[in-house]
Design goal:
Largest sheet: 5 strands, antiparallel
Order of helices and strands: HHHHEEEEEEEEEEEEEHEEEEE
CATH topology of the largest domain: Nuclear Transport Factor 2, Chain: A
Helix content: 10-25%
Number of domains: 2
Distance between the termini: 108 Å
CATH architecture of the largest domain: Roll
Number of strands: 18
Mean pLDDT: 91
Structural class: alpha+beta
Strand content: 35-45%
Radius of gyration: 34 Å
CATH class of the largest domain: Alpha Beta
């Protein structure tokens, strides 16, 4: 009798222990509430941790938004969740406060309850449409961004700079707040390094034009009057004595590389069939064409 009683008590104790373990697991596995999620989101913004901030969003933006936050020139300081609204059909709103660029800010954004827990609604981000006077892209927070396209960004202060960097100059600073939608225009101009970069491209192009050939190369600004002296051309060799020097037009849409000196040696046969070599010199060798600023590249196209 005593043994049976002991077994019964032990079984009961085991059942109680299992039940207690289940209760502990249920409490431990509960998802953080909207106030905690909102606070953690603000903390990630204040740390400039775009990758972590994106994990709290209901619909994470493109990776460029996280990268831009990490390149922001100003981050949230002293962030706080002021209040959380009543939950209605799995949604609520957070009223928050923080300092940004030396000014106190107040904002509000939504939260949505999902199967994975509470997530931040898209209105916690801001929308920016950058434009530029030259080129088709800009750097926003160091991230190459299409011009005239609306981009979602985390709240922060961003530099918006002309692209290609080092080729074009011009920038503006913009403050992005939750739920904001704004435009920023950058007045771009050629940087002091633009001409040197273009000259490198032209030097490489001119060198390729001056490679030994069997005919006069096209789109190289080269004219060799060999037909005045030869009946047939078998080969032509070039020597560059001076490279054409690049200059841009005022609107940076075209270029002219002028003042080049080129020596051409043509080999062939005369009309009488005799082998002959003739040398020609051009003191006005020039290359002209258009300029395009595409993404982070400057492209020169020779006419």
């Amino acid at each position: 009798m005593k043994r049976a009683a002991v077994v019964a008590i032990a079984a009961g104790a085991a059942a109680l222990l299992v039940g207690g373990g289940a209760a502990v697991w249920w409490f431990a596995s509960r998802s953080p509430g909207p106030d905690v999620v909102a606070g953690d989101f603000l903390a990630a913004l204040a740390a400039g941790d775009g990758a972590r901030a994106a994990t709290f969003l209901e619909d994470p933006p493109e990776a460029a938004a996280a990268d831009a936050l990490e390149g922001a020139v100003g981050l949230l300081t002293d962030p706080a969740v002021v209040s959380i609204g009543a939950v209605e059909e799995g949604t609520t709103r957070a009223d928050v406060a923080f300092d940004l660029d030396g000014a106190a800010q107040e904002a509000s954004f939504g939260l949505v309850e999902t199967e994975g827990g509470w997530r931040i609604a898209p209105d916690a981000l801001g929308a920016l449409t950058p434009t530029t006077t030259i080129g088709d892209a800009l750097h926003v927070g160091g991230v190459l961004t299409p011009a005239s396209a609306t981009t979602s960004l985390f709240p922060a202060v961003y530099d918006v700079a002309a692209a290609p960097s080092g080729i074009l100059a011009g920038s503006a600073t913009v403050i992005v707040l939750p739920g904001s939608s704004q435009e920023v225009a950058v007045e771009a101009s050629l940087s002091p390094d633009a001409t040197a970069s273009a000259q490198e491209q032209i030097d490489a192009y001119a060198t390729a034009c001056a490679a030994p050939a069997s005919t006069v190369p096209e789109n190289c600004g080269i004219r060799v009057p060999w037909a005045a002296d030869l009946g047939a051309l078998s080969s032509i060799a070039f020597r560059i004595d001076a490279m054409p020097v690049v200059a841009f037009s005022a609107d940076a849409r075209t270029f002219a590389a002028t003042g080049g000196v080129l020596v051409a040696t043509a080999t062939g046969t005369t009309r009488d069939g005799a082998a002959q070599t003739v040398t020609y010199r051009a003191d006005d060798w020039a290359l002209r064409g258009t300029v395009a600023f595409t993404g982070d590249d400057m492209v020169l196209s020779v006419d």
